[in-house]
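Hi team,

Filling in the usual template for the complex we talked about on Friday. All components are listed, including any nucleic acid strands or ligand strings, so the model treats them as one assembly.

SUBMITTER: L.P.
PURPOSE: interface mapping
COMPONENTS: two
RESIDUES: 931
SEQUENCES:
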Amino acid sequence: MELIVDLHTHSSYARATSKQLTLENIYKWAKIKGINVISTADFTHPKWFNELYSKLELDEGGLLELKKEFTKPVDDSLPQTVKNNKVRFILSTEISNIYSKAGRVRRLHNLVIVPNFQIASEIIAQLSRIGNLNADGRPIIGMDSKELLRMTIESHPDSLFIPAHIWTPWFAMFGSNSGFDSLIEAFEELSPHIRAVETGLSSDPFMNWRLRQLDGITVVSGSDAHSLPKLAREANILNCEWDYKEIIGAIKTNDKRFVGTLEFFPEEGMYHLDGHRKCNIRLTPDETKKINGICPVCGNKLVVGVMHRVDDLADRPEGYVPKNHKIVESIVPIVEIIAETKNIKSIHSKSVTDEYDRVIASLGDDFTILRHKTSKDIAKAGFLELAIAIDKIRKKEIYIEPGYDGVYGIVKIFKPGEIKQKSGQLSFL
Amino acid sequence: MLNDFNEAQQNAVTSNSPSIAIVAGPGTGKTKTLVGRLSYLLIEKHIAPEKILAITFTRKAAAEIKDRLTMPLGQKTPFVGTFHSLALHILSDDAIKIADQKTLATFANKKTLREVSMLKNNLEESELVKTYNQKLFAVGMVDYDDLLLLLFKKLNHKDEIPNMEHVLVDEFQDTNPLQYKILKRLNAKNYFVIGDPKQSVYSFRGTNEKIFEEFTRDHPNTRQITLTKNYRSAPEIIKTYQTLFPQTSLLPTKTIKGEALLLDLQNEFSEATWIVNYIRNYVGGLQMQDAQESQGTFSDIAILYRTHRFKRVLEQKLQQSGIPFQVVGGGSFYEDPEIQAFISQIINKKTKFKSLLSAIDILLSASLKKEELKSNVSRFGNGTKSVSRFLEYTSELQNHEYFDPHANCVTLSTMHASKGLEFEFVFVCGCEEGIIPSKRNDLDEERRLFYVAMSRAKKGLYLTFARRRNKRRSYKSTFLKRLEIKTLVHHSARKKRQLKLF
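RESULT (copied from the run log):
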């Protein structure tokens, strides 16, 4: 059984997230996107926890299921093509650990995944002593990440701790501005308990494979979505049963059950290259090194991006691919493709969402279309431009303006005038 | 061994006078000097450890001194502890049962209990104390103050007086009349007292800054030494708090860089917002969106106020911001009456528990707090030692009014409870007439309290003055009038715009 699993999302109770991120809406969008197992997110938030506790129940596989009374109205509103998709939840939360270690301030985001509400409440009880859980679904805790790891592994054998988006400059394990240079530095004698790390949007598995210290550790992906359309913009592909233990076991062991990841183009991530947003300066790692990391406009230190940081810590050359490596599939969410073909900036504009609804209603969920439909099928259903775009994405014939210092990269699938030209070429099909 | 000490500290450590009084201003190395004196007596003077008593104000201070004291091989540590632990130490053979807070709460309310304690510590008899004592006697128990009274009575008999060569007293300004009488009855050959009369802020517990004068009256040939070299605060900060007592002269360490500022703000909301923004900037942002280089972390910062009444808005704004913080003496889990009763039960039970978890299972079997406590104490392990580790931890918390020094949080504290602590950056909020100084207290004691609060700061001292508080106009504290400090006027943009419109 192939499962698409997104373990890093947020609810409306986290800072700077969409009000639309309710449990019912997440369920609905998981169906639209084709996500099978999705994080509840933010379980440390008292109000959200209560909502989860009252609306979800454990199924026979130890996964959480939204109760019938809440699923029915949602299912009734969905087109036939996606309404029968099965969706389950897993309790997970992201913690912002801010602390001093070895004379420097460290800021790491970490994911904590637990098997049931009992374990979740025990973790909440411990964190509430030292943290402020009410303000943010992703709470700031003044605690060493290592101690959070200890708390997680002691909570239950099937709990899982994953350092989140490990390359992000400001809030990550390998971040250039407040992280560490190695797993050992961060987690000391407990580092063998780190079984998985999350790539983040600005890096992909290829970049992570360049580090020997990550050998044998599962490279997972999560969307860190702050709004519904961004759910599963990155995710994991697993081949296992609908079972909590199986899913966690696959991630912990990195065995055959863990098939690979669905990836953002890393250049699209907002910390891929180096630079200064305010000074309008974007540089490649080589360019940054040439000017000693100092911004030519303001004279302050440049924000060192993910590509640069990977290069600094890597002990293998660029392009290295291990034997028996996992699958890496680059994707662009369909709603973003539609926005580009229509030449509209916002994915929330009505003409974009209307077209998206039509696509879903006639072809099925995002991942079915992106991963399994031939461009011929898509074109036949009346979405010629989408078919051409997906074909180009699969061939990686796209252009990306890389992101830097908090500015997202921009994906361009078509050159100016290309859509018309390609649409005219009937030979394409 | 004396290389690390400055001249005044050396004199204090090595003086041969039978009575020595050291006035040690904030940050002048008081604990270091006391530890130095103990080492000097033990190592250089070969005084037997059992001939030495070192008395501290808190158990935390005692622990710190023991920790810093390096004993010659094979020797046991001399007694280092509070007056209460000294009483328990000397009365150890007598069967004494101490009433816990829960039992005492059934006798009288908090206010009355405080009054009783005050009377007892001043050795004053009254009807109130009498009836209260009868209730205690009826259940066969004593309270904490009685421990000192029992000790005092015991020392009345000549053959019960321990034959002490050296008695050392830390935080001498906090010694109350009963404790001072006990010190006298100990009749030691040598006394060494150290403290700072300007940091005497516990008159409501019967202490008095004049105790140093009383000591020198009782010991006319006292060698008096003043420690003046400050190693804690930046020169600008020392200059600021020193103006409260112009006759003192602390010498700053020039290498410490820092600032002292008076913040002139609109009201208690802009006060809280300013502080929250400061903390956010200092730690380098709380979210991706405002991330920047960080200068330090939450535990570097303390926010002090006159009474807990003034923390409401601060607490609210911190809560909203997501900044982790802890309130000293502010409703810790371990202060819960049920947990307190549990703690005193394990102390009083003679039987040893297999482990902390089994103690919880047995003593809290029917309690709702059981699981919560269990989840909180996993860090103490699960052997026989877990019980003592837990007791050590809770007693440390208690000594610090439930402040956990290991938690990386911003500290919120009353000015009183900040004594003995130090932070890189300190906010003293509400420098307004009627608050600092409080209307209800002696002006001199309020000045000392303000001095204690400000002298906690190492690199940054920020005094706040809100022009309106509780919707009423407020006036600058009289203490600010003479203070040498730069002022930063910060009023919200909205207000400015309004003014322009009019």
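MY TAKE: Residues 117-130 of chain A form the longest helix (14 residues). The mean pLDDT of chain A is 94.

Thanks, L.
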